[in-house]
Design the sequence.
């Protein structure tokens, strides 16, 4: 038992101690219970925005990563242009751009494409307000993180020995079959910890959606603290929620890395 306790990292022990004090304060100190109840409803929004954006960015990042390593130069150049452009922009700028420029532009494009149906009265015209801010936030996070995930996939694909591709060709497999059945399974295994770390980053950056008024943890904490002037107590609870999410995910990532090293 003592040896097991001695193996626990000091940083983890400190965080557990801090979390224990926070939990005790939340459930015993006056005022914290009300703050917990007021902010807790935003936890579902934070998780849903993070999960949807992460799943979408994985799919888009995989497509970009495949294009980035493609032998077809136009696809490779287009993917590289997108990745370098998006990675050079702060996430908050992408969020504002999609929310206030991209949504109206998308509505205009849909109206242009569906103009015959709109003129015949079969459908109504689209407006920017038809896209709620939560949807715009998910799109912005997806576009932003897909560029970083694309580079992770590119590195994973390039880490697979090229000799395996030559062996697959000798066995009669096409380039597509080689990529799907030989290269991608190994690439996924190599980049799995990095992909998991990106989810931790998305959870933290999901707090940016509060600037659009999306009712996540940060936004509810902002509203509650502004109405009660309990800034210290409110942001203690906000920090507690995010630490619970990110530390738990970080520990899962470390465990995943350990298991992959053993296989």
Sequence:
């Amino acid at each position: 038992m003592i040896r097991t306790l001695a193996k626990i990292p000091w940083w983890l022990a400190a965080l557990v101690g801090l979390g224990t004090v926070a939990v005790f304060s939340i459930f015993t100190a006056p005022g914290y219970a009300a703050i917990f109840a007021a902010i807790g409803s935003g936890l579902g929004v934070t998780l849903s925005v993070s999960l949807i954006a992460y799943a979408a960015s994985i799919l888009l990042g995989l497509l970009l990563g495949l294009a980035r390593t493609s032998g077809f130069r136009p696809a490779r150049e287009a993917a590289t242009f997108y990745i370098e452009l998006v990675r050079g922009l702060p996430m908050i700028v992408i969020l504002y751009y999609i929310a206030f420029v991209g949504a109206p532009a998308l509505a205009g494009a849909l109206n242009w494409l569906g103009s015959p149906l709109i003129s015949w009265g079969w459908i109504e015209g689209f407006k920017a307000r038809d896209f709620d801010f939560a949807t715009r936030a998910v799109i912005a996070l997806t576009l932003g993180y897909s560029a970083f995930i694309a580079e992770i996939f590119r590195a994973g694909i390039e880490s697979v020995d090229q000799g395996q591709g030559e062996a697959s060709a000798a066995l009669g497999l096409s380039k597509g079959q080689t990529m799907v059945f030989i290269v991608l399974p190994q690439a996924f295994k190599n980049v799995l910890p990095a992909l998991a770390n990106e989810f931790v980053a998305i959870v933290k950056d999901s707090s940016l959606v509060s600037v659009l008024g999306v009712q996540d943890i940060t936004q509810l904490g902002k509203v509650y603290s502004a109405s009660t002037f309990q800034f210290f107590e409110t942001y203690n609870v906000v920090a507690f929620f995010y630490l619970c999410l990110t530390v738990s995910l970080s520990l899962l990532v470390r465990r995943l890395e350990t298991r992959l090293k053993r296989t």
In short: The chain has twelve helices and no strands.
